[in-house]
Design brief:
12-stranded mixed β-sheet, Dihydrodipicolinate Reductase, domain 2, 446 residues, Alpha-Beta Plaits, 27% strand, binds L-homoserine, alpha/beta
């Protein structure tokens, strides 16, 4: 029987999950593939530990070069994470004619376009399903399932750590720092939690999804990004009273052309108020969700585990199987039968312009800490009126014996530029203390 021989870089949580599937699910996968996947080698800096798995038939090394250059490996799985040395090992693997599967969203978001060109030149495939939304096959859905559609919008809860933190804060009234520690202990968080909580991980994933949706090159550096670290349990409670829940969303939508005739795409990541009755609002804990809307299919929603050993490993091995299905041992032919990695043939991918954030339209939740005295609200609302910003709701909590009180305002639709101009004047008012918390609100009909 034909074999496809696999090597793994990095035996961390996900790497061991992939090894476990390749060993324990071999009979099932052979039935589905008509070929056998064999784990031949793995590299990790620390081999002196209990892997909790029988790796006796696997050649182990502390040097990743032993895997990426080995003659008896057809496909390299990169699970080191981060930009370097992961990028260099992937480049070497491609140069040695090996297919690559990775879960590394940072690598794909920053260097993916170069790697795809290099892979095509070497006639090898790159799979990266696990890089976006862990176990949810949302890239396959985007690349193949909705390929007949013009994509109208992409919304995603793309970071399990943030969703876990926001859910716990809401359910238990718990504080942000304690819940972050719990998420890290559960293994959801990235090595550097800033990537998770400041929205960078979500921006990596959104930039990949958006490029795939709109046939463009990946523009990770241009995604407007805000995280969840400024949100308090009190904000979550206030938002709930107004009929909303806070989710860290990645949002991408197409717009018209700019003055230079280049199509513009709106791409932003920030904590977002979503109506309680929507499907996305129901997605809790470390679950992720991706909503892709197209002109024929309308709304499609994909929900599942976005992090953790088993779901992420499941997506990695699905990619290995896709490539193994079309490629023979020791040969690269067959890659042409796979859908193009970014969903469009290379010659049709184009450069886009990211819609300037000042032009993005949204509705807003504003939390101001103001002195409790006559005329303060009048001064704030008169500035909003000067900027044509209309209010949908306003709430002031009664606080006995306290001089500074929170005032919450929900606005109707306005541009970010308009809102920021009003905020500059509002925060300059003597009666407005501290920074104003600005959250954006999205309306869905799904
Ligand atoms: N740290 C990520 C998350 C998982 O919390 O969703 C891997 O992308």
């Amino acid at each position: 029987m034909t074999e496809v021989r696999v090597g793994i870089l990095g035996l961390g949580t996900i790497g061991l999950g992939v090894a476990r599937i390749l060993i324990e699910q071999q009979t099932l996968m052979t039935k589905r593939l008509g070929k056998r996947l064999r784990l031949v080698a793995a590299a990790d800096r620390d081999l002196d530990r209990d892997f909790g798995l029988d790796l006796s038939g696997v050649r182990l090394s502390t040097d990743a070069n032993d895997v990426v250059t080995a003659d008896d490996i057809d496909l390299v799985v990169e699970l080191i994470g981060g930009y370097e040395p992961a990028r260099s090992f992937v480049v070497t693997a491609i140069e040695h004619g090996k297919h690559v599967v990775t879960a590394n969203k940072a690598l794909i978001a920053k260097h993916g376009d170069d790697l795809f060109v290099q892979a095509a030149a070497n006639n090898v495939a790159i799979g990266f399903e696990a890089a976006v939304a862990g176990g949810i096959p949302c890239l396959k859905a985007m690349r193949e399932g909705v390929a007949a559609n013009n994509i109208q919008s992409v919304y995603g809860i793309l970071n399990g750590t943030c969703n876990f933190i926001l859910t716990k804060m809401e359910n238990e009234g718990a504080n942000y720092a304690d819940v972050l520690k719990e998420a890290q202990a559960l293994g959801y968080a990235e090595a550097d939690p800033t990537f998770d909580v400041e929205g960078i991980d979500t921006a990596h994933k959104l930039s990949i999804l958006a490029a795939m949706a709109f046939g463009s090159f990946i523009k990770f550096d241009e995604v407007f990004t805000e995280g969840i670290s400024k949100i308090s349990a009190a904000d979550i409670e206030a938002v709930a009273e107004l009929g909303y829940r806070i989710k860290l969303l990645g949002i991408a939508k197409p717009h018209g052309e700019n003055a230079e005739g280049i199509q513009q795409i709106e791409m932003r990541v920030h904590p977002t108020l979503v109506p309680l009755a929507t499907q996305i609002a129901q997605v809790s804990d470390s679950y992720n969700a991706v909503m892709i809307s197209g002109d024929f299919v309308e709304h499609t929603v994909y929900i599942g585990r976005g992090a953790g050993e088993r779901p992420t490993a499941s997506a990695v091995v699905a990619d290995i199987m896709d490539i193994a299905r079309v490629c023979k041992q020791g040969q690269q032919d067959g890659v042409e039968y796979l859908a193009p990695p970014m969903g469009y043939v290379a010659a049709e991918r184009k450069s886009i312009a990211t819609l300037p954030i000042a032009d993005v339209e949204s509705e807003y939740y504003l939390r101001l800490m103001v002195q409790d005295k006559p005329g303060v609200i009048a001064a704030v609302t008169s500035i909003l009126a000067d900027h044509q910003i209309s209010l949908e709701a306003m709430q002031q909590k009664e606080r006995d014996e306290v001089e500074v009180v929170p005032v919450i305002m929900l606005t109707h639709q306005t541009t970010e530029g308009n809102l920021q101009a009003a905020m500059l004047r509002i925060t300059a008012l003597k009666a407005v203390e501290d920074e104003v918390l600005i959250l954006r609100k999205e309306s869905f009909d799904a």
